[in-house]
Amino acid sequence: MSTLAMVQRGLRPRLIGMVAVVLSVFAFTLLAMWMSQSMDASVYDSLPDAMRALAGIPAGADVEVMAYAQMVGFMGALTTAAFAVAVGAHVVAGEEQDRTLPLILAQPVSRLRVAGARIVVLVAVVAIIGAGLWGLSLLATLPFDVDLGQAHLGALTLALGANALFCGSVAFCLGAATGRKGLALGVGTLVLLLGWLAAGLLPLTAATEGLVDLVPWAWYSRPEVLVNGLDGAALAKLLGGSVLLLILGVVGFRLRDVGTPVPLIPSLPRRRRTTRRLAAPRRGLTLTGLALRRHRTLFLVVAVVAAGIMGLLMGPMYEQMTAQLESLSETMPAAVFQVWGADDMTTPAGFYWAETLGVMAPVAVITVGVVPAVALASDERNRRLAMILTATTRTRLLAATLATQVVLVVAIAALTGLGIWGGARLGNLDLPAAHIAGAAVHLAALGLFVSATASLAAAASGRPAVATWTAVGVGVIGYAVNVAVTMAPRFEGWAVVSPFHWYGSARPLHNGANWGHVAVMLVGAVALWAVAHPLFQRRDLNR
After folding, report:
1. Cα-based distances in Å from 166 to 78, 212, 219, 235, 240
2. 292: number of CA atoms within 13 Å, CB side?
3. Do 332 and 415 belong together in one domain?
4. Domain that includes residue 202, residue range
5. Of 106, 124, 212, 305, most Cβ neighbours within 10 A?
6. What is the pLDDT of residue 48?
7. DSSP 503-541
8. Angle between helices 433-461 and 515-538 (to 10 degrees)
9. Phi, psi at 465, each rounded to 5°
């Protein structure tokens, strides 16, 4: 097998995902620019250049260009980096887990060539997405006659791509060196999310400001490339770190043993043992227990982040940053905070919502909720589902998947709430336990609703990519609509189409649970699961 053939084989199944990332960010940018035209531009025109730069408005640019900072610079960077992590974790470890990599290595091809082809796939994915974002970002100005001024869109997408390549290289390094896709995906996601969080929080106190230079995400975000252009030193750190990680991954891949493929047709005794285990779950783990065990590594990683870092540590950090947060709130207009999805950060509830419950916690619960649905579709794609269904029914299997989603989502939401409660106690913050519990209930309901969309997609299509991108689309579009509506209040009526409206508009951390909003999300989740059952029950399995 030639290197070119391996690269083509790696790129082909990811084309839809790449197109989805680029078009989604482009659509959100258009939406944000359209809605930002109804904003009161005088608020920003009166700001000094330094404050306009902080809001993401380059010199000589119209206010609408601020949408690039939010949609391309933040959402585009986060989505591209997450996609790169998924690719980096799968190109070696994922194919080894699917038992296809040993078959490739059985051909007259060296491990070095195989690893090199996988690296080319990762780099090509990032480059294609970056080029697509750059081209469509330029096109986004045409319908609105917007003056870009001194905006550096090309530099922004280059830095965005370098940041995504670094995150993807972390996942590639671990996946290639260990063969464990779950570990690679979990650590890569951890580096991505914690880097984004640390880059925003560490500069707020004098004691921790010096540490921000150690955070990879800060190498991308701190130079404010859209306004100031490329920072050569920061770009060199991202690219140099990526090269080092890729080399370490290749070295680890060459030195370790690779899992051997299982027979395409299992032996009769082995098939009987598998059938007996699935048919008699009372003797061991139930189907739900097996599914929970399958996802335990991801759950543990997300649980540590949700409870320990997003919850427990934020209380003491807020206590140390109170003066800086008050000064920032007095300097910047409230509309700027709304663009970034933040609330009044001078209160404990507002700070926790902006830093934990606004983005990070929803990503956590949605991730653990979507994974079981994707696993169900992956079993069908890899021809394992047909064998499993010889020992159980489709109804039981789908019910086990839904039960797994509920357990994982509720557990992460509860742990996040416990972490916030502990952080509030450590920081002596005035956050009532009832309000924290209400926010955790809203978080669980949001996670269940978005997870249910993934279950519906998996049940209807049997394709993991469809399940993944359905959930990503619902989550990202919902968040973007919710943020865009805050930029243009005259479109407030559209907020009801976003699950994030039902999640956060009642301000549950400030006021406690709004049971009507919770009911909307839960009823929606149940309805989606109900539709998924007949679709999964009646269709033919993919072959």
Report:
1. 12, 17, 11, 11, 9
2. 15
3. yes
4. 1-260
5. 305
6. 61
7. HHTT-HHHH---HHHHHHHHHHHHHHHHHHHHHHHHSPP
8. 20
9. -65, -40
Q: How far apart are CA 128 and CA 73, in angstroms?
A: 17
Whether residues 252 and 297 fall in one domain: no
Number of structural domains found in the chain: 2
Each residue's pLDDT tens digit, 212-241: 889 999 999 888 898 888 999 999 999 999
Residue type, 281: P
Q: How far apart are CA 471 and CA 40, in angstroms?
A: 34
Tokens of 68: 């690039």
Q: Is the dihedral of CA 336, 338, 344, 350 positive or negative?
A: negative
Local structure of 356: helix, strand or coil: helix
Which residues have C-beta within 8 Å of that of residue 92, sequence separation ≥ 6? 101, 115, 118, 172, 175, 176, 179, 249, 253
C-alpha dihedral over 527, 528, 530, 532, to 10 degrees? 170
Identify residue 467 by its one-letter amino acid code.
A
Q: What is the pLDDT of residue 262?
A: 41
Burial class (CB in 10 A: 0-12, 13-18, 19+), 328: middle
Q: How far is CA 313 from the centre of its chain?
A: 21
222 burial type by CB count under 10 A (0-12 exposed, 13-18 middle, 19+ buried): middle
Shared domain check, 126 and 184: yes
Q: List the Cα angle 453/83/477 in 5-degree steps.
A: 40
Orientation angle between helical segments 232-255 and 153-178, nearest 10 degrees: 20
What value does the mean pLDDT take over residues 243-264? Answer: 79
Cα–Cα distance list, 505 to 97, 235, 336 (Å): 42, 38, 18
User: Taking phi first (over 0 means left), then psi (-120 to 50 degrees means alpha), and beta for anything else, what does residue 522 get?
Assistant: alpha
Instruction: Give the whole-angstrom CA distance, residue 499 versus residue 474.
Output: 8
Per-residue pLDDT, 47: 64
529: nearest Cα among 414, 461, 450, 417 = 450
378 with 418: CB under 8 angstroms? no
